[in-house]
Amino acid sequence: MPEAVRAAVFWAAMLLFAIHLGLALAGAGIPLITSLVGLSKVKRLKIFTDKFGQQTATFALLGGLWVFIVLIVSLAALWLLAPAKAPYYLGLPFPLAAVAGTVLAGALAFLTYRGSWQRLKAQKTLHGAIGLTTTLLLWAALYVGLAAARPLALLLPPATGPAFLLPPGNSLVWRLFALGLALSLGLAGTFTGAWLVWRRDKDDFGRDYYNFTLRLSARIGFVGHALALVAVGWLGLALMPLAGELTTRLAVSLGLYGTGVLLTLVCLGFIMPQENALRHKILLVAGFLGSLLALTGLCAGLTGLVVPGLAGSILP
């Protein structure tokens, strides 16, 4: 395969992976955010927070369903096309039991959270606890996935027992997990902000509602991406010995991440204090695109540093 075609396939794969990873991380963080927002005691905001919770939970449901389907198809394709790598995720009983268990438990908790919205609207504490449990289970699925991939990255035999769930203290898994948690919050903000803008003409709840929720989404996204930037720095310190010579692909990856994060933080930072945030809704869309750009660069950079042989083993 010509080098130009290989590069095009690689970046297309990174973009598709970033879109689906972003959906998954955002969907995992949304129940936590809507649960905390729903506990607000300010009466004049109650109708806003309730509508915000239902709107964003619907987005998480649709996005999560699509990601779940893609995950099942991807695992089936992995089993058929790359049987040598399948045991790292599909080995019985581990790690499949841990991976599938946390994903299914999180999905069940989320369906309970979204489905009980009306029945538990007067019991916000209980409903919020279900939402918090949902996020914790989905974050646990993220951790299990990272731990299951560790032997693959280190060229070790696949895990055959539950010991893989506790990597050594100096493992990159811990830093990647911290980054994943921060990204989950940041992407929940940028993805829901874009969803609110897209649904503006279809679910017109009034300017006051959108001014409140767009500012809220911007604040959540800004805080999450700022924390992710710190986590990337912490991860980068551990990856410096692996970087070696700065390749073109790594330089492009860093450029995409830096540009995307800067665009996201500038756009969200401008919107946060605006009383009429709806007037600047295009900046929320720009922030969403910036976060996706940053995630694409991050995925590409980590692929080249953590599993450098992955692209070569897949592409002819």
Description:
The chain is mainly α. Helix content is 78%, strand content 0%. The chain is built from ten helices and no strands. It is globular and about 55 Å long.
Q: How many strand elements? A: 0
Q: Roughly how much helix do the residues carry, as a percent range?
A: over 70%
Major sheet details: none
The secondary-structure element order is HHHHHHHHHH
What is the first-to-last residue Cα distance? 6 Å
Query: Kindly state the mean pLDDT as a whole number?
Result: 87
Structural class of the secondary elements? mainly alpha
- What's the tally of helices? 10
Give the overall shape: globular
Unreliably modeled segments: 311-316
Q: Which percent range describes the beta-strand content?
A: under 5%
- Rg: 20 Å
Annotation keywords:
mainly alpha, globular, 10 helices, 316 residues
Please specify the SSE layout and strand pairing.
Elements (H helix, E strand, L loop, with lengths): L2 H36 L4 H39 L5 H4 L5 H20 L8 H30 L18 H27 L8 H37 L4 H24 L9 H26 L3 H5 L2
State the gist of this model.
This protein is mainly alpha-helical. Helices cover 78% and strands 0% of the residues.
